[in-house]
Amino acid sequence: MTHKTFWDDPYQSELATRVASVDGNRITLQATIFYAESGGQESDSGSIAGQPVLQAEKHGHDIVYTLADGHGLYAGDAVNVRIDWPRRYRLMRLHFAAELTLETIYRDFDGVEKIGAHIGEHKARIDFALPQPITPHLAAITARVQALIDADSAIISAFSDTASERRYWEVPDYCRVPCGGTHLQRTGEVGRIALKRKNVGKGKERVEITLLDEPPADS
């Protein structure tokens, strides 16, 4: 089982570890900071032993990384893992902006159903099954989400079930949500956001989330 160091410290951008297994151009590591796409959050970008990771995939409790042919790595080799930290930090900020937007919409619309989500480096989106346009409510939703961000509350991330690797995030006195992504330490790190409605079909609504500022992030 790959140890997910990105849960121990999602702000870590470099890690010394060892190769656990090799199958052609696919390898696993004993430990990793390199997140593989899950829950709508895109995979990290980065390298293993100086070689670009072409793909990262979850396989049970392991994460399998695809490198170029002829990588020359063997099980037991010591390697250094590096991720593109500025990209990871934007993903973390957009991820949590999307989480807060989702929770706010859940509270505003009875019975609303999330039917899709995607967290990219420059934009996040959440898709809902909703019979009416969300546009008339968007300004109020944005204001409530921004107020949650501006409160700069602590964010708790922990296991609800260690053996099954089930995790959650929690903002005390607001909500607790199952999620295995990489999370910020405080809501204020999200910064200023904008929400935009997009029509993706009858009975479906999409809310797109973007960041309006890019405060400097230290690795």
Summarize this structure as a short list of keywords or feature phrases:
219 residues; alpha+beta; Elongation Factor Tu (Ef-tu), domain 3; Threonyl-tRNA Synthetase, Chain A, domain 2; 2 domains; four-stranded antiparallel beta sheet; 3 helices; 16 strands; 20% helix; 38% strand; disordered C terminus
How is the topology of this model organized?
Elements: E1 3-4, H1 5-8, E2 14-23, E3 26-29, E4 31-32, E5 46-48, E6 51-52, E7 55-59, E8 62-66, E9 78-83, H2 85-108, E10 113-119, E11 124-129, H3 135-150, E12 156-161, E13 166-171, E14 175-178, E15 193-199, E16 204-211
Parallel strand pairs: 1-4
Antiparallel strand pairs: 2-3, 2-9, 3-8, 5-6, 5-9, 7-8, 10-11, 11-16, 12-13, 13-14, 15-16
Helix pairs in contact: 2-3
